[in-house]
Amino acid sequence: MEREYLVRAVALENYDTIVYGLGGDPAALMRAVGLSYPIVEPEIWISYARFLQLLDHSAQSLGCPHFGLLLSRKQGLNALGTVGLIMQQASNVGEALGQLVEYHSFHNQGAEVVLSVDQNKALLFFRERIPGAVPWHQQMDLAAGIGVNVMRLLCATQWAPERVYLSHAAPENTRPYRELFRAPVTFDWEESFMVFPESDLAIPVSNSDPRIQEILRQHLSGLEQTYPDSYSNQIKCLVRQAMFTGDCSLESVAGYLSVNKRTLQRRLREEGCSFKELVEEVRFEQATRQLRESRTTLTELAYRLGYSELSAFSYAFKQRFGMSPRAWRRHHSGAA
Asked: What residue ranges define each of the domains in the chain, with the CATH number in brackets?
């Protein structure tokens, strides 16, 4: 079964700024590829296939062949979300890149970062996982640009790789690439990666804090346990996210994955569950957490969970737990 890959919406950091600067309309461009606008929460998941289509569509619509490279100028560790935060707490550059390799899937499920060392040279690769005919050109430029920005933040602003290799054909104008990388660029290579001295891996990261690093590690480990790598758990994650936006319908969640609702239902049946069952699981997980930890009114909680009225929520809750939400809250938290 072909997997649906996701990426955190924070990957679009400063997308609006670049598009407006080129005279475009970010809302129109995003909606043209099936992405909602605006995205109010940077940590939500969006379809990686649609993300790639957006970059390509933006480049073509705006007449900017190096759109991904241009976007990378406005992105750095912040565009990696929690992964970028944990990298800043590493003791040296090698450890920071090691954490990028280890945790990259928490930011982007459709690609991987690989670090290798050969003959005193470090090679940092960006490799795609998503199959099929998807436009990769702009993503490769974006990843390469972010990689250089990250190294300059970790090392020094004057840092430059020895050479950058890109797997796409050379554009007519290569000047933007030379200006950003400050290094020779080879196009039409088998893979996309950059090369720099192995000794750079030992450069200390300033202002790192191992205590913060451990907190972030525990946070990412918790995410790994909460969302194991299965389609049904991926859907549960998206349902939870959709509840935040107010629409956890089958159509809405299928839209995140760029699939139709029949495909989503069929794949869940193959794992022995249904969309309705997963929605109920998420609802009750959220309900018990809110009842235990917050003072949210029952009416407000019912609304947040997508119930049309409090009586429907109370009935469903009692069917599940054998007591009303009010009684459950009193029993588990002592709240009135």
From this structure: 6-211 (3.90.1520), 228-333 (1.10.10.60)
The per-residue pLDDT for range 57-115, each reduced to its tens digit, is: 999 999 999 999 999 999 988 888 888 888 988 889 999 999 999 888 888 988 999 99
Phi, psi of 7 (to 5 degrees): -140, 150
The amino acid present at 201, given as its one-letter code, is: L
Q: Which residues are CB-neighbours of 164 under 8 A, at least 6 positions away?
A: 144, 148, 177, 181, 183, 184, 185, 186, 193, 194, 195
Report angle CA 250, 256, 260 to the nearest 5 degrees.
55
- Using CA atoms, how far apart are residues 134 and 74, in angstroms rounded to an integer? 24
* Residues 207/153, Cβ–Cβ less than 8 Å: no
What lies within 8 Å, CB to CB, of 322 at 6+ separation is none
For 316-334, the DSSP string reads: HHHHHHSS-HHHHHHHHH-
- Tokens 């249904």 belong to 274
Tokens read off for 227: 């969302």
Note whether 108 and 130 are within 8 A (CB): no
pLDDT of residue 314: 93
Is the model's pLDDT at 240 over the cut of 80? no
